[in-house]
Write a structure and sequence with these properties.
The protein is an all-alpha fold and about 170 residues long. Helices cover about 55% and strands about 0% of the residues. α1 runs parallel beside α6, α2 crosses α4 and α3 runs parallel beside α4.
Length: about 170
């Protein structure tokens, strides 16, 4: 089985995402964006964090725009002393990793199944390597993108909640 961490680092290298360096604003907003996916009442949140667009209203804002607005609300531009040290940044992302793995375990997946799930998502992400990045450096999806959800569902269908096999 592929080492998912090695695969993720290689994918980031191939996509050129490591070339721009670390930006705490963007990295944090990417995490918030992923956390917001699947929630249905995003217009209510958009109303709290965004200035209304008189043409489209709040209904056309998704996780990407809302996450950037949330992080911008707490960002202290111009004062570099407000930013975290690299050790604090690393700790923040390690904690996020721990929470994410724990969340997948709470879905009933064991360590091997979690590894399989990450490999399934990375296989899908490989399709994005030929796409352009947006203004924040996030890769888009090709028009013929094959989502990982069907394979993830098959994996979930096989789950056995037996924490002794971790």
């Amino acid at each position: 089985m592929l080492n998912p961490i090695k695969t993720i680092v290689q994918w980031n290298q191939q996509a050129g995402l490591l070339d721009t360096g670390y930006d705490d604003f963007l990295e944090s907003s990417f995490q918030v964006e992923e956390a917001l996916e699947g929630f249905s009442n995003l217009p209510a949140l958009a109303k709290q964090v965004l200035v209304e667009d008189s043409v489209t209203g709040y209904d056309n804002y998704g996780p990407k725009e809302i996450s950037r607005a949330i992080v911008a609300l707490v960002r202290m531009d111009g004062d570099v002393t407000e930013y975290l040290s690299d050790v604090d940044r690393l700790g923040k992302h390690c904690d996020g990793f721990v929470y994410n793995v724990g969340s997948m375990a709470k879905l009933g997946l064991n360590a091997q199944q979690i590894t399989q799930a990450v490999n399934i998502v990375m296989e899908a992400n490989m399709q994005k390597l030929q796409c352009k990045t947006d203004s924040a450096g996030k890769l888009g999806k090709p028009a013929d993108f094959i989502t990982p959800e069907p394979k993830l569902q098959l994996l979930l269908d096989k789950r056995v909640v037996d924490y002794t096999i971790y």
